[in-house]
Design goal:
ten-stranded antiparallel beta sheet
């Protein structure tokens, strides 16, 4: 039901936006929001989807832990500072929901083999946006930067570990991000769909108390990998 509501919400937005797309994509469009790019600071918000994964490196060769991914939901705000005509500094704090299931090999008991990793992230990205020349009402851009993430569901303060079916990761992680998008200038606002890859820098795993734990002992590092698809409105 939640996914249906989100789909209908985006469908209604895109349907309304398509009514104005004739002017945006026409051969000789009327230039919308012509002075918008002259603003020093502007704000907006975004909604979107995410797909989180883990990159797992092992100490010794072993059957891989399988990561089953789901589609999560993003919501956040945007503040944009113009540094130069084609370069902007963006801060995009947001709330991200996601879920991953880790399926461990070589377990006969399904309760031991499965670890559900439900995550609620507060994401703090600081990005540089590099825009191209504006053509009519279209302006592509690339962006990149670094981010810090607070995992509110990390279980990092718990004493219990995988022996008690508690999978633990660190509360704070750092990442670098790369992506691209396009600004579409309508009569009243700017609509910016974008896609971004997120790459964790530090090892997130908290090891079990038992140094020979079958869940954590052979893991050299566990790092976040994610793809964000955001729809931003200014």
């Amino acid at each position: 039901m939640k996914k249906i509501i989100v789909f209908l919400f985006f469908a209604s937005i895109l349907n309304g936006y398509s009514q104005k797309s004739k002017n945006i994509f026409s051969k000789d469009p009327i230039i919308n929001l012509e002075n918008f790019q002259k603003k020093r600071i502007y704000y907006g918000f975004y909604l979107g989807f995410n797909s989180y994964d883990f990159k797992i490196d092992y100490k010794s060769e072993t059957p891989d832990i399988l990561v089953n991914k789901t589609t999560g939901f993003n919501v956040g705000i945007v503040s944009d500072l113009k540094l130069q005509e084609y370069i902007n500094l963006r801060f995009e704090p947001g709330l991200y929901y996601t879920k991953r299931d880790l399926n461990y090999p070589n377990f006969t008991n399904s309760n031991d083999a499965l670890r559900e990793v439900n995550s609620t992230y507060i994401h703090f990205p600081l990005l540089l946006k590099f825009s191209s020349l504006r053509t009519g009402n279209i302006r592509p851009y690339a962006l990149g930067g670094f981010s810090a993430t607070l995992n509110l569901s990390s279980n990092s303060k718990l004493v219990d570990d995988n022996l008690e079916q508690r999978f633990r990761v660190k509360a704070w992680t750092t990442n670098y991000e790369l992506g691209f998008g396009i600004d579409l200038f309508s009569e009243y606002f700017i609509f910016s769909p974008s896609i971004r890859g997120v790459f964790g820098i530090n090892d997130e795993l908290i090891r079990d108390k038992d140094p020979n734990s079958p869940w954590t002992s052979n893991i050299e590092s566990l790092k976040t990998r994610a793809v964000f698809i955001n729809f931003t409105f200014h």
